Amino acid sequence: MQLRFLSLASGSSGNCYYLGNSTAGILIDAGIAIRSIKKGLRENNIPFENIVGLFVTHDHGDHIKNVGSLGERYHIPVYTTELVHMGMDRSRWVNEKLCQSRRIIEKNVPFKLFDFTITPFEVPHNGTDNVGFHIEYQQINIVFATDLGCIPDEVATQLCLADYLILEANYDEEMLQQSRYPYYLKTRISGMHGHLCNMQAADFLANYYSERLKHVFLCHLSKENNHPELAYKTIEYRLAQNNIRVGTHLQLSILKRNSPTELFFLG
Q1: Residue 159 half-sphere exposure, CB side, CA atoms within 13 Å?
Q2: Which residues, listed in sequence order, are joined to residue 121 by a DSSP beta bridge?
């Protein structure tokens, strides 16, 4: 069964992604309204009842606002590390605390759920705990790295496993520095435990490209400090410097901040 990928929202006001086949699927994060999740799935002929698990990257509000409702009201198991669960327990963003739906997974320990094998791995960010996900499905490898301030070697190793890569390109350096953000916030965003800028994402893709990489989805773009066209052109130009052509060697897509993308078929 062919794998389908749908970004329901990808931005600082909310994040949620769907990955699944015709019978079962998972969500990555739940930072948007449940009605928006249901609507986005319904418009792509994906039954909400097909969701068999929710995987959480970290405990920031734009990733967890409706984790509690999905877990406790809709009985969808919520998988993340023990520290992320602890962070969500303390978070003002989670109105309904997880009890029956709480599931603990460990970094670098593969976990099997239906036809998916999911391996969480550590990423540098400023949540209570922070993970990306490497998901295997019938020899297809999908890697999510949605919030991270840099790409150390151990993270690069995980990203290089991807046939399909969902990678943050949060801000443009010049736009951030010229923004009205206070200095402390600019420093936090651009720090080693903040967010990836366009050029960091571009340099990684140019320096670590391999022929197995089919499609890159740029996610979590800042409304104030980035533009979709700017992110796209920055990555496209940097790849071209290494003779890697977008549209020939790999596909490149920008995930929308506040609305669903088209449905992508992977594999």
Answers
A1: 27
A2: 132
Q: Is the dihedral of CA 44, 47, 48, 52 positive or negative?
A: negative
Give me the DSSP letters along 211-232: TT--EEEEE---SSS--HHHHH
CA 112 to chain centre: 19
Residue with tokens 């990955």: 19
Report d(CA 165, CA 213) in Å as an integer.
Answer: 8
Q: What is the pLDDT of residue 6?
A: 98
Q: At what angle do helices 228-241 and 198-208 cross, to 10 degrees?
A: 30
Q: What is the pLDDT of residue 26?
A: 98
Q: Note the pLDDT tens digit of each residue in 125-137.
A: 999 999 999 999 9
Regions of the chain where pLDDT drops below 50:
none
77-80 — which CB contacts under 8 Å span 24+ positions? 77/52, 77/53, 77/101, 77/103, 78/53, 78/54, 78/102, 78/103, 79/53, 79/54, 79/55, 79/103, 79/104, 79/105, 79/111, 79/113, 79/118, 80/55, 80/56, 80/104, 80/105, 80/120, 80/131
Taking the C-alpha atoms of residue 90 and residue 47, their distance in angstroms, rounded to an integer, is 32
